[in-house]
Design goal:
Structural class: alpha+beta
Low-confidence stretches: 144-151
Length: 502
Amino acid sequence: MRTLSARILLSFAALTIAFGVITANTVVNIHVVEDEVQVVRNGFLPLALIAKDLARREEDLKSYLGEALQDDPNAASARMNLRRTRQNRDRALARTHEILAGLDALPEFARIDRNSTQGRVDQLSGLVIANIPWFVAVCAQPPFGRDDARDSDASRQALARLKDTERRIGQLTNELSDEAERRVRQVTFGLEENEHRLRLYTIYFGLSAVVLGLAITVWAVIALRPLRRLRDGARRVAAGDYASRIDERGPAEVRDLAREFNSMALAVEERERELVTSERLTAAGNMAKIITHEVRNPLSSIGLNTELLEEELAAAPVSAEARALCASIHREVDRLTSITESYLTFGRLPAPKLAREHVNAMVGGLAQFVREELAAREVELVVQLDAGDPAAMIDAGQIRQCLLNLVRNATEAVVAKGRGKVTLRTLRTGDRVVIAVDDEGTGIAPEILPKLFDPFFSTKESGSGLGLALTQQIVKDHGGELSVDSAVGRGTTFTLSLPAAT
């Protein structure tokens, strides 16, 4: 349940199961209703009808024996009528046997009362068969009435036995008819109950499915709510709020998407910062060219005239104060010239000429060059070179300039603290060559770190603010990265990561 797709799949599975249960329950109940309808249509309803017909035929036969037979003046007509009523009764009884035989094809629950019904019909058949001799005896005698002299004891006895037997048969047929009607009413009542139960089940299951669907809909809305955060975050980033981040919580897909979105926002923020920095560097370079062009020539003239004035003062008897003044002017002119040269270098930064260089040799040469300078300021220089002598694709002159700037900044930080050391390290890590400059100086305040590489930003009173900006631009032109890690009071580490030579 950690993924959004699993939640949606589970929701649809729950709905599918719910509707499957409803459908299965409805089909089962409909099947039961169909069985009961089949029992009524093909079993007990025909049985009830034929039982009624059998009872009516038996009643006709009893009525004829009791009244019409004695009033019939014609013996042939009496025999014919008696046989016809008997045959109608026997056909109804035979039809009853056929319907009972068909009950075997009915569902199991409909066969419960078949044995008792069959027993009663079999008893009827037995009485009918046993009644045949008396029936034959009656048919063999002519009709007789109350006053007929031809009445005999034999005929009266045969007729009495026939009437008694038919009375018993009539009683059984009435019982059979009543039982069939009762069974029809019972099955019909059960059918009504099942129909009512089916309707209730359908309503209950339908309402349950609706409630389940609503619950799953609410659950899906809650599960998809994190997507709204993604949408709002995308809008904030589109509006320029690149520092905006999205909470990385929710289903797995949403967390992954939020993580990727935050990475994208960070990349966009970095690109925006790089673009701004690049635009600033370009503007600063153009401005530096203009300022250098406008200031360089006047400074050269001032410097030259100051030198000439110093020569004149050296030959003339003037005060030492005048000579000191000229020397001060000359130093300031040299400083301004150095600054203009920095601006000019910044504005005319050439593309690096990449070549395979062994960084140990370059770093060792730089350490040898600055060691005396650092020793004069009582700063210890430590060099830690990778034993593998890594090589990188670099412009050695430009990278040397970057390292020289970083070493001098580190030296000033150590001097400001009072004592400490500066360490130069080289290291090969995968496809990168790392050169680090560590110092044990005063460190850099956290609020200054984000602005450290901005052009014209400097914490030094006499700094131009171009050294670190120029260093970062050179490293980027090499396809590398320049990073800084600092702690106030413990020191700073600048790390150059450059592409290794294959």
